């Protein structure tokens, strides 16, 4: 099994039902936001305080990656979707 990104694309191309595609889309969005945030944090760790300097562009990327965690839908709602629709747990909201 590949990454959720490629599996989701394969499901879309094969004409799978929208629930399956939605599952892959939500997992992919969650993972992409987490990976982007971690990359921004690593860049800030490498550059230290100089990472806040506008000239490096790191501070801007860190702000942008934070946006991925809250827009267009927050990570908490994505986790609620995953827990309810994929894992079959009861609604927590």
Keywords, please?
mainly alpha; 93 residues; acyl-CoA dehydrogenase activity; elongated
What's the short story on this structure?
One of its GO terms (molecular function) is acyl-CoA dehydrogenase activity. The chain is mainly α.
Q: Helix tally?
A: 4
Shape: elongated
Give me the secondary-structure category.
mainly alpha
Q: Give the SSE order as H and E letters.
A: HHHH
- Poorly predicted ranges: none
Q: How large a portion of the residues is in β-strands, by DSSP E?
A: under 5%
The radius of gyration is 16 Å
> Please, what is the average pLDDT?
87
- Main pleated-sheet profile: none
DSSP strand count: 0
As a percent range, the share of helical residues equals: 55-70%
N/C terminus separation: 31 Å
Tally of domains: 1
Give a structural overview.
With 93 residues, the chain is an all-alpha fold. The protein has one domain. 68% of the residues lie in helices and 0% in strands. The protein is elongated, with a radius of gyration of 16 Å. It starts with a helix and ends in a 7-residue tail after the last helix. The model has no long low-confidence stretch (mean pLDDT 87). One of its GO terms (molecular function) is acyl-CoA dehydrogenase activity. It comes from Saccharolobus islandicus (strain REY15A). Keywords: Flavoprotein. This is Acyl-CoA dehydrogenase, CaiA. InterPro entries: Acyl-CoA_DH_CS, AcylCo_DH-like_C, AcylCo_DH/oxidase_C.
